[in-house]
Structure formats: C-alpha cells, structure tokens
Amino acid sequence: MARLMNQFKQMFLMHLKITFREKQAWFWGLFFPVILMVIFMFIFADSDDDFEASVAVVEENPNEVSTAISDQIEVIPVLNVDHQLESQSEAEQLIKDQDVTAAIVLPQSEEDSDVLLLVNAEDEQSTTTQVVSGVLSNIVQQMNLQVVGASETYAVDFQTVTTGEHELSYQDFLLTGLIALAVAQGGLFGMIDLVDMRRKGLIKRLRMTPVNMSLFGLSDMMMRLLFSVIQIFVLALIGVFLFNATLHINILGLVVLFIVGALSFNAIGYFISSFSKTTEATWALRTFLAF
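RE: above sequence
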C-alpha cells in the first residue's frame, strides 16, 4: 500500500510539473477565461445602471404646444437633453456626427400636429432608438388625451419574476458562466502533454516498467481536478473583489456539478488525445469542439 501511495505521489508531482511547463494549457485553461471576464466586465459592468439616451430638442418657433412637450421631455429620466436648438439643420449635423442619439423637432405652431423624430439611419433599429421612439409616442398620446379632455383609464405595471432564489446582476451571471467555461477549457486543452508523451513513446516505456498505469491515469485526473479548483478560485477572487460580483453558492450543487463537469470535459480531452497523431491536429480538433 505504501509503495502504491508513493507511486501515486511521484506521478502526481510529475503531471503537475508537466502542466506547469505547458504554457498553452495555462493560457486556454486559466488566462483566456480571465481575459474574457475582464473585457466583458469592463464593457458591460454598468449594464444594471439607469438607461439614458442623449437627445437634442429643436424648437424653431416656441409656442404653447411645443413648450408643453418640451417640459415633459425635460422631466423624463431616460432622456438626457444635451442640446436646445433652433434649427433642424443643426440637429441633423449633430446626428451625423453621432453627438446625440436622436433629435426631437417640436411643432412650429399650435395648429401643427406633427412631432418629428430624427435618428441616424444606421442606428434606426437599435434598442436606444426604439426606447426614444416609444417615449416620444407616449408623450404625444398624453397630449392627445389632454386635447380631447380624456383621462387615462388603464396603465401597464412592470414587474420581474426570477426563476432562481436571488436577483442576479450581470457580474454574477458572467462570473458563473466563465467559471464553467474555464473548467471546460481546462479539460479540452490540458491534455497536450499526453499527446506529446505518446508521440515520443514515453507511454509505451512506462508500460514496460513496474509503474501501475491505473495510478498513472488516476494521478493525472486528480491533477486536472486540482487545476480546475485553481481556475474557480482565481476567477472567483477577481470577480468578487475587482468587479463586486456576488457568488450565490449551493455547496452541494457546486461540488456535484464541478465533479461531473470537470470529469466530462477531461474525458473528452483524453478521448481526443487517444487518437491524435500530432499536437497540431489535437489543437485543431479541440479548438473546433471548444467553439
């Protein structure tokens, strides 16, 4: 028993040293998910903040109607009025220069019933443009109700319901997904050393020695699991302390999913390594499967 434990220890350390020397495995298994997380966190970390669209308001001939609409636009929190203009041509130039999301041209007289919304043609279907259009349509509808003396009878209330126990921020969602990605990447790209050992005939030589090949495989698998634990730990630290993400952890669920996920992707990595003739072929197939 002591001899088997000693063999296991020596082979575990051997696999650990080989993995530490394999820079590509470290990149795809750890640094690539970290780089992705940092990029996406910096780009989308403020996605939970209040939405705001920059608009210009054109009032060429101030009148009672244009003033009333302008006052309503001013108090809407999602519309940030950056420019008060007197010429439609100025507003068009601001849109061409992408200084504002849209421009609202107010009626030139009390008899004029049109409110013109100017947007960039390339951004016509964007979410921001649709929001501005919807807000403006609601303002016009309210003005129509006031003109005919009608009161608003029905209203829409908005409420969200989550399938989970906690309300997740974007940071929480992204951190969880990238931890799963890291475990998958580590399993797929961490077996390059085995391909190299088989190509050089080292596996055959080991089989000719008293080494227990079952312990060889077990020690390698345990090292892969340790590598996955390091991945989770590093990503969790970066996500929590650098980007204020929250880990809503169910310990039992985490352990079960981690073991099943790590073993599954490691098994795929072993399967690819078993028939790949060269490291180049291995990288091509694993990259295809990863995407």
